[in-house]
Amino acid sequence: MTFLLLLLIAALVVLFAVKDLRMKFITQPVFAFFKRVLPPLSDTEREAMEAGDVWWEGELFRGKPNWETLHAYGKPTLSAEEKEFLDNQVMTALSMIDDFDIVHNRKDLPPELWDYFKKEGFFALIIPKKYGGKAFSAYANSTIVAKLASRSVSAAVTVMVPNSLGPGELLTHYGTKEQKERWLPALANGDEIPCFALTGPEAGSDAGAIPDVGVVKKGEFNGEEVLGIELTWDKRYITLAPVATVLGLAFQMKDPDGLLGDKKHIGITCALIPTSHPGVEIGNRHNPLNMAFMNGTTRGGKVFIPLDWIIGGPQYAGKGWRMLVECLSAGRGISLPALATASGHVTTKTTTAYSYVRKQFGMSIGHFEGVQEALARIIGNTYQLEAARRLTTTGIDLKVKPSVVTAIAKYHMTEMGRAVMDDAMDIQSGKGIQLGPKNYLGHAYMANPISITVEGANILTRSLMIFGQGATRCHPYVLAEMETAGMEDIDAALERFDDLLLGHMGYATRNAFASLFSALTGSRFAQSPVSGDTKRYYQHMGRMSAALAIMTDMAMLILGGELKRREMLSARLGDVLSELYLASATLKLFEDNGRQHDDLPTVHYVMQTRLMKAAKALEDALRNFPLRPVGWLLRALVFPLGNHFNGPSDKLSTQVVEAMLKPGPARDRLTFLCPSFDGDKGGIAEVEEAFLAQYECRSIYKKLRGAQKEGKLKGKGITAVLLSQAVEQGVITQDEHDKLLEADKLRLAAINVDEFSAL
């Protein structure tokens, strides 16, 4: 038996070692199989693959992350100019915002705020300085939008759109010299207001299916016959369209008469058109969940424009989809995550404060375990949001175009933004429900589905984009193998495929053994760049990375092109990658902040949540793997001893909350995007002031409760009568009595809601 086994091993060694034998019996059959199951790529998919860059997600996908690479990315910081803008212009803008008036009375920003945004360069954050812009970093851009969103979603969206996907960004990256000189200074100083029209009734998340058409033909422009484009379009959901002076337009460009060459269908193209141009129609305004930012329609029928209105000039005809994909990182990686992170900072600041000052049964509701469970989720999600915001903007500021990372950020951060709002509304209940000037949750709660829907609907982002692009782009061999399968020279293709196949087999074998070994040893021998409290998290993430790599290989091998249609399976595998990315961001934020000890309960909570969710996604994928015997084999490699990632304990949840029910640096680090300032009209300053006053009185309350227990004071609760008794009995001083009365006055103002006369 031993001899036969040795003989088999020797035969396999010879089979792989002798190239002619390997080519005939292994490489050629596998190559034929690979070509047969190869997932077909559409033109838009191929352009999306080529447009994005692979960044940190590539390390996570390959089974053995290099943690030193993560730590070497650096800590995002603000320049002196950016900090000054935040400390002055942004704070001034916040003092001008009355969101209740904006949403319920004006249905628009007040004229003085519009003028201030224009004059101070809020619409020029990404425009180069040579054209009058700010040229701020992605991190600064995100911070500005988030701080505005802490007081008004409508104001934040108004600012973020010109600094996101649109004419300013497209011109900066692709515009001709003439286009940049014509438009960028005017956009920077607010003389021109841009919008970008991409979405239409029949093309939403599938933006590649744009039905709007531009036909190349000759026409009259400025009294002369020129070669141009006759455009017909119908767009909706276009933010700033009702007030825009310049329209960025995406359309399918066609040349049926061959005026530009042999290609009849040129492809998606982007052009820049003044809204005053004949035939351009700015239609009616939409009402996006009652928010006041401008959003509406634009249409045009047989509108003629010259060729040089194409962004980048005629040479960029047909390159619009790639341009859009490369620039989508602003919306997906900066703007929408900034709104979500602002939701976290606002809910953490106000809900910790409110749950401290709101009392039931003689006790702050923040000490009830049921409330603490939801409050711990708010705090944990906020730490995660801030961590992901920083790591994602770091990638963008490094001038990479991490399309998979920004898809992860868009989906998971907007969903967390929704989750923190749901939990905050549950805790603050009537305070969040009754709309009025004092309500700081209602408008953001109402606006949450907007972020979920735009820049690619979340369902499709999760089920198609994250894993669909990630599996191909991040895998060290698959994209090269797909390119090889498309080569016309079969002999050259086989030679290249043979090299790739050997590497791929070694890669898969290593990941299989790494997954099994880590599972059997509890990841104790896996690499970690640090020691101490977070060491085990790095080790467990290495195990998850290896498990994801081997499961991805098997899924692609078994399903091939069918994997694109198995959206539930691919979404779960994408969830594993996403959880690893979010966990990486959390660990990096902890390191960037100097490993603050008072952050540790929250870091433990977040990391245990991320690992639990990653393991559950793996388990669900295994349970639903289409070929059951393969699923059983994979389970033996991934969870040979079962899934023991159970998430945070109740004790840890309580520790997280108790650490945040007091003022201090840890709370400040999770609420700085929701600043306090004089003249705050939105109720946040009111509840924060009450919280600080109540906290300052905690030792006095302790005296009163002690006296009640000893029988020195009669009655339950803290009433005016009891306070008078306490002074008479010498339990507290008159100054302490007055301090308590003032604190209670602030507490009542904070928990009360707005009232209106009957209509």
UniProtKB/TrEMBL annotation:
Keyword DNA repair: no
Annotated Acyl-CoA oxidase/dehydrogenase middle domain residues: 195-293
Domain (Acyl-CoA dehydrogenase C-terminal bacterial-type): residue spans on this chain: 472-756
Acyl-CoA dehydrogenase/oxidase C-terminal domain location: 318-458
Pathway assigned to this chain's UniProt record: Lipid metabolism; fatty acid beta-oxidation
E.C. designation(s): 1.3.8.7, 1.3.8.8
Lineage: Bacteria, Pseudomonadati, Pseudomonadota, Gammaproteobacteria, Alteromonadales
UniProt keyword Oxidoreductase present: yes
Cofactor entry: FAD
Protein name: Acyl-coenzyme A dehydrogenase
All copies of domain Acyl-CoA dehydrogenase/oxidase N-terminal, residue ranges: 84-191
InterPro entries named among the record's database cross-references: Acyl-CoA_dehydrogenase, Acyl-CoA_Oxase/DH_mid-dom, Acyl-CoA_Oxase/DH_mid-dom_sf, AcylCo_DH-like_C, AcylCo_DH/oxidase_C, AcylCoA_DH/ox_N, AcylCoA_DH/ox_N_sf, AcylCoA_DH/oxidase_NM_dom_sf
Reactions catalysed according to its record: a long-chain 2,3-saturated fatty acyl-CoA + oxidized [electron-transfer flavoprotein] + H(+) = a long-chain (2E)-enoyl-CoA + reduced [electron-transfer flavoprotein]; a medium-chain 2,3-saturated fatty acyl-CoA + oxidized [electron-transfer flavoprotein] + H(+) = a medium-chain (2E)-enoyl-CoA + reduced [electron-transfer flavoprotein]
Record family assignment: Belongs to the acyl-CoA dehydrogenase family.
